[in-house]
Write a structure and sequence with these properties.
By secondary structure, the chain is of the alpha+beta class. The chain has five helices and six strands; from the N terminus they run αβααββββαβα. Bound molecules: zinc ion (ZN) (2 copies).
Length: 151
């Protein structure tokens, strides 16, 4: 998995949406509504459905990553880049990028061994962030499941 290069040619509206996502500070994840607001500021005639379709398309092209996190009803978007997982704080909902090498080769061969096909690998780590741990320490002897994948 590598970060895709700028594709040769995108329709103008898609390019605009892509630029908006790329302009986002690394580590930030925005819902479609925010991306729409920012894109519309650049081009007033843009409709929500165009932005939404562009995001969908950019995700399928592997340029944008769509994140569905447990407990959040809206998907979040960021520029696709390889080798990162997400840490989600259970208490405040803060999301952080975790630079790590997801063992995608192992996952691919596992799934292929079962005649399956991997579409995407999204690793989410759940726990509590520093601020939450400092303000509300967990009772002694109890440590929440720090790593789980739920839906
Ligand atoms: Zn927190
Ligand atoms: Zn991320």
């Amino acid at each position: 998995m590598t970060t895709p290069d700028q594709p040769k040619r995108l329709p103008a509206n898609y390019q605009l949406v892509y630029d908006v996502v790329r302009a986002q500070e690394p580590g930030l994840h925005a819902p479609a509504g925010d991306i729409f607001t920012r894109a519309k500021a650049l081009k007033a005639s843009l409709g929500y459905s165009t932005v939404y379709r562009a995001l969908d398309r950019l995700c399928k092209m592997g340029l944008v990553l769509e994140l569905h996190l447990p407990g959040m009803n809206a998907a979040l978007y960021e520029q696709a880049r390889s080798g990162h997982a997400h840490f989600v704080c259970r208490s405040c909902g803060r999301i952080e990028d975790v630079d790590c090498d997801v063992p995608s080769d192992a996952i691919h061969s596992f799934v292929r061994g079962r005649d399956g096909e991997v579409e995407e690998i999204i690793l989410t780590v759940h726990g509590r962030c520093t601020a939450c741990r400092l303000t509300a320490p967990e009772p002694a002897g109890e440590r929440g499941g720090d790593r789980s994948i739920e839906s």
